[in-house]
Amino acid sequence: MPSNQKILTIQDISCFGQCSTTVALPIISALGIETAILPTAILSTHTAGFKGFTFRDLKEDIPSIVAHWEKENIRFNAIYTGYLGHQDDVKEVLELDSKLNEGPLIVDPAFGDNGALYGGFDANYVKAMAKLCSQADILLPNLTEACALLNIPYSEYPSDEQIDEILLGLTKLGAKAIVLKGLGKDHKQTGITVYSNGIRQDYRHDRLSKSSHGTGDVFASVFVASLIRGLPLLESAKTAADFTYQAIKATQNDPTHWYGVKYEPLLTKLGNKIDGLLK
Fold it and tell me: Which of 100, 94, 97 is nearest to 73 (CA)?
């Protein structure tokens, strides 16, 4: 593994609920990468299933944080963005990327799922996010987000031809490589498709009966760490998909743990797996 690798992750902090920064920071750090954070907002919990959560927008703090980093000559080997929360954050992220990033920009759009946008987002946010996605070295959308970015109808089980059209559309948008998530031919299957340099590679597995919050963040965090550690694009995506599957499986029989997935006990085994793949 290259020494002194530093990743910056830009997304909100949901203090409780196992998503966004509270997933990215521990996972990427546990896998051997120094991880800095730039929070776009702070919430008491995530917004799925909790009522009366607190929310504080931190976008006004971002310029001064970036200015301080620039003064201190702080640079990063990759930037990974997740849930931003406000369309104005896109401009700040693009400026930060141009000033402080010496490696890939990895973008998880994080604005919708299951055919709908998350609460608080609208067409203007999607349009702003498209500008960020157009600059991504690697784009990590789920099917809902991909369709919204391209302004095309959402289909829960797209055909191979429809998937090809989506991949081509995202490439024309500007993304250099794509990991498209949440794909399956029916309710029994799900998986990912990786697209880079005109080559499409599919990876599918059984769909578990229970869905869980924060799994997109778990996937993205494992993917980013695996990639920066040195695994190829497809192997990083497969490693992230397998880990996410196991985390959901480890959680699905515990009704008290509805707010996220129990990924923490699996991290040691994941680290050993990545070490083995890199030998």
Answer: 100
What are the Cα distances from residue 183, in Å, to 41, 115, 143, 215?
30, 13, 7, 14
pLDDT in tens, 97-135: 999 999 999 999 999 999 999 888 999 999 999 999 999
Q: Does 200 reside within a domain?
A: yes
Number of domains observed in the structure of the chain: 1
Q: pTM score > 0.90 for this model?
A: yes
- Average of per-residue pLDDT across 257-267: 95
> Does the residue 52 lie in any domain?
yes
* 178 part of a folded domain: yes
Residues 93, 95: Cα–Cα separation, whole Å: 5
DSSP 118: P
Which range of residues forms the domain containing residue 173? 6-278
What tens digit of pLDDT does each residue of 234-244 get? 999 999 999 99
Closest CA to 247 of 275, 272, 273, 219: 219
Instruction: State the Cα–Cα distance between residues 67 and 65, nearest whole angstrom.
Output: 5
Which has the closest alpha carbon to 216: 240, 233, 194? Answer: 240
Would residue 103 count as lying in a domain?
Answer: yes
3-state secondary structure of 178: strand
Number of Cβ atoms within 10 Å of the Cβ of 185: 13
**Domain CATH number, residue 166:** 3.40.1190.20
**How far apart, in whole angstroms, are the C-alpha atoms of residue 142 and residue 145?**
5
